[in-house]
Amino acid sequence: MTVPLLDIVFQNDRYYLLFDDERILKAMATREWYVYAEEEEYICSIKNCKVSELLKVPGKIFLETQENLNKLENIFRKLKNVVLSSDKINH
Question: 2, 66, 89, 90: least buried by Cβ within 10 Å?
Answer without folding.
Answer: 90
